[in-house]
Amino acid sequence: MSQRTAGIHHVTAFVQNAQETVDFYSGVLGLRLVKKTINFDAPEVYHLYFGDEKGSPGTIITFFPAPGSRRGRIGGGQVGVTTYAVPEGTLDFWHQRLLKFHVSVETRERFSEKTLLFRDNSGLLLELVERTEGPASTWAFGGVPVDKAIKGFGGAVLYSVSPDKTAHLLEQVLGMEKIGQEGSYARFKSEGNLGNIIDINIQPMEYGAGGAGTVHHIAWRAKDDGDHVAWRNKLAGLGYHVTPIVDRQYFNAVYFREEGGILFEIATDPPGFARDEPADKLGEKLMLPDWYEEQRALIEANLEPIEVRILKEDKE
């Protein structure tokens, strides 16, 4: 197979409160807020991006915070669990850190890997796993030092209403390799070193319901614009209802819903998050696309102020 994705580009989810989301993902998990912008289709809503120091593909989780929005239900047709990779020997540090912030943690095992399973403030399911693959983080914040910092995505657990069809797409279309099956899970691996391990619950699941605490879509990596066009043509040729290419400022995107009900995106690695602000200032200013710039005052007035801050538990 000539065309393969390197793995996850980003994951996008719904949450309820913008400041609580910043506090959890930067204050507790130590990720960098790399972009503060808006939902281009609903400018009254933030679109917040968190990742490593540069916002590298394979590290980026993004959120649409909507105050007062209803909670969703995690189920079929969704990413069930978003997995983060941490350095070897750091899982005990993370267990104690989560408990310090009063986050309930379950210890589990899958494919002989110990994981820590927990939820964010809106109920989104996350897990931490130790992995040797992938570059170490260069970002430290609050009580998370560089040598224990999250590297990026370890991968994800997919909940499908038709897992055989989802598995077929991962292998035969996206170019992943099936590397194991254990209990209720099949495991697939892409050629990247972050966001490269994808597990599927092989039991068909009833559809979940979208809302706060659920993943909206998962995006896979395309190397560049040429690769991206080739992905779109390939998907359309296979009969998938794929969107036109959409300019998301920091990457180009196409979307399609696979037969297991999960919304997939293909996103380009370039141009990245430093295209409109200096790398050392990422996430500090509300960034707007050109067509919204003349409405900046109104947009800013409609958004609650947020800040990246060290939490009191790390000051004590």
Automatic annotation (TrEMBL):
Sorted UniProt keywords: Dioxygenase, Oxidoreductase
A molecular-function term among this protein's GO annotations: dioxygenase activity
PANTHER family documented for this protein: RING-CLEAVING DIOXYGENASE MHQE-RELATED
Name assigned to this protein: Ring-cleaving dioxygenase MhqO
Gene3D superfamilies: 2,3-Dihydroxybiphenyl 1,2-Dioxygenase, domain 1
Gene: mhqO
Domain VOC: 7-131, 152-269
